[in-house]
């Protein structure tokens, strides 16, 4: 059961420079268990003293086989697995999967459900950026930022728990809308959060933005040029920090994003500091969207009425025969999707999160492929780290903002 | 369907013999496997599809021949349109040319397709497994590869499974 | 009563050796950072200010296995990661304990497939299992307190 974990130098010969073979440079293993690799990422570093000549990422230590496992479950049951991919953006994973199913079977979503989806996705974006900021600050030595960010995150987790029943993996979004309507305390909790959060972002900026140590460690580190970013398919805040104005919420809006007003910040430097500024500004814009969504929340049902895909409420089961038949079919076999394939992409806090969903007429998905942003963004790490020191590498891993569940699926 | 996409569709149909199909408002073109590098070159340099969104494979065994379809999603920043390409491949260990020289992020996507499906890419700089352990045998996402699940322990078979399970002792 | 009365104001107390050693072990048990997946985020939340774990003696999370006593396996263990896990467990000095946090570490969780080890007790011996997907920080703290109770009940004849 214990498989081989080491790779020999022969297999790596084409990746490392000649100086490593001669023994002039050192090959160091920054192993899967490391305090600042944000998960189980293994990096093979070729070092000349303290300077990084080459960095070879080795991923797969968290490969869960989700794509194959989802083929064995029905569409609605597979939604539970989607939370666990990018575990900092659980609500966003649910969203993209439900959008893909709705596109595949051509299912409508009522406007109230769309508005609540936008609201919770933006709150989740704020929570994800808070974890990023906390761990990035912790890696660079700012420990109080970690504690402050997790304190704010507790408010958001409480809101998600109140709607979906669980702090992180709620699987609140279902095909056709939401699982159930938001409770009575929801509005008050969100308003309370919105009233105190912008001041907290100012607090984080006070601690970090003009801090000379933070600036010394992040300005001009890991510069990603615009051409490189497009060539390597980088998306998300890293792309926007390099000067490309691409945000799928504005470019190809989904779930009612076109109804809300918000700005998409860009920056031209493309270094770690620019990416930091991007994410801070994104948090502010997310607060704006949440405010608008809460003010304009329409009334109505929260799940589609199409009984071929959405189960009927339990109160109807005693009186209506059709409701009973639909309930039975959906619970035993599940709904079927037509033959065909769709690709739906949303803007997750890390970049473009896409689902390629293929149905074949049966109740189980034939092929589900997740285009995850961290998998693509991580390829840029060797390019960014050339010529920097090992200590800068820690800042770079943080700034690319990878989540290993996303990379390895 | 935007004008630009219509013109791209007719251009690719005429030049490379692609077959177009539309499903739920998304355009998909079937390209023969040998021509994929030319098509991607044309898409990137002439038709301004500068980002490769996704590259994946689907296994249709045993229902359909050819068995594998490689699916590419390309995106144009300028015109804000998406396009998907399909390459059918058959056989047990097929191979097709790599598009890494055109879209750099195809590197890891193609490594993952090799790892999960066993499809080799010619001209790839680093063809080795990425997600599974280095000496793993088999390609997990093929349809003839089992899910590999452990039998569920109910009360009637609890003891049998308990005996077979390799518990660590110290 | 007993010998303390006779010794008077010398400032000496008596205690069983077992109690003293177990008290020292539970009050300053240092966990090793072994957060793998989603449960790691809940472990970080448990360490942060809202559900502070430092009040139970776990102020530091040591990344090095040579300086820690407790390994909290938080998250799903894949077949590629299992040898690494075993090696890290072997590098920890005695006395050591393992808490298996979350469903994936305890029994494979919702992932019953080729890539996930069905329960980390196939690789390392586990003392306490904490259920949940992910377990709330309070559940993790309950698991840690249960481990403390288990350690307090250890007898001298069981020590190596």
Any chance you could write out the topology, listing elements then pairs?
The complex is a heterotrimer of chains A (409), B (170) and C (160).
Chain A lengths: L8 H4 L5 H5 L3 E5 L11 E7 L2 E8 L7 H5 L4 H8 L7 H16 L5 H30 L2 H22 L8 E2 L2 E2 L7 H23 L3 H7 L7 H6 L5 H5 L6 H4 L20 H24 L25 H12 L7 E9 L2 E9 L7 E5 L1 H5 L3 H5 L4 H11 L3 H5 L1
Helix pairs in contact in A: 4-5, 5-6, 6-7, 6-13, 6-17, 7-8, 8-13
Chain B lengths: L2 H14 L2 E5 L2 E5 L5 H11 L4 E9 L8 E9 L4 E9 L5 E3 L8 H12 L2 E3 L35 H7 L6
Parallel strand pairs in B: 2-5, 6-7
Antiparallel strand pairs in B: 1-2, 3-4, 4-5
Chain C lengths: L2 H5 L9 H11 L3 E2 L5 H10 L22 E5 L7 H10 L5 E5 L1 H5 L20 E3 L6 H16 L8
Parallel strand pairs in C: 1-2, 2-3, 3-4
Walk me through the structure.
The complex is a heterotrimer of chains A (409), B (170) and C (160). Chain A is mostly helical. Chain A has helices spanning 9-12, 18-22, 66-70, 75-82, 90-105, 111-140, 143-164, 186-208, 212-218, 226-231, 237-241, 248-251, 272-295, 321-332, 373-377, 381-385, 390-400, 404-408; strands at residues 26-30, 42-48, 51-58, 173-174, 177-178, 340-348, 351-359, 367-371. Chain B is of the alpha/beta class and 170 residues long. Chain B contains four helices and seven strands. Chain B has a five-stranded mixed β-sheet. In chain B, helix 3 (106-117) links the parallel strand 6 (95-97) and strand 7. In chain C, helix 3 links the parallel strand 1 and strand 2. The longest helix of chain C is centred in the last third of the chain and has 16 residues, at 137-152.
List keywords for this structure.
heterotrimer; A: 409 residues; mainly alpha; three-stranded antiparallel beta sheet; 18 helices; disordered N terminus; C: 160 residues; alpha/beta; four-stranded parallel beta sheet; 6 helices; 36% helix; elongated
What is the strand content of chain A? 5-15%
Shape of chain A: globular
Oligomer: heterotrimer
Estimate percent helicity of chain A.
Answer: 40-55%
Quick summary of this structure?
The complex is a heterotrimer of chains A (409), B (170) and C (160). Chain A has 409 residues and is mainly alpha-helical. Chain A is built from 18 helices and 8 strands.
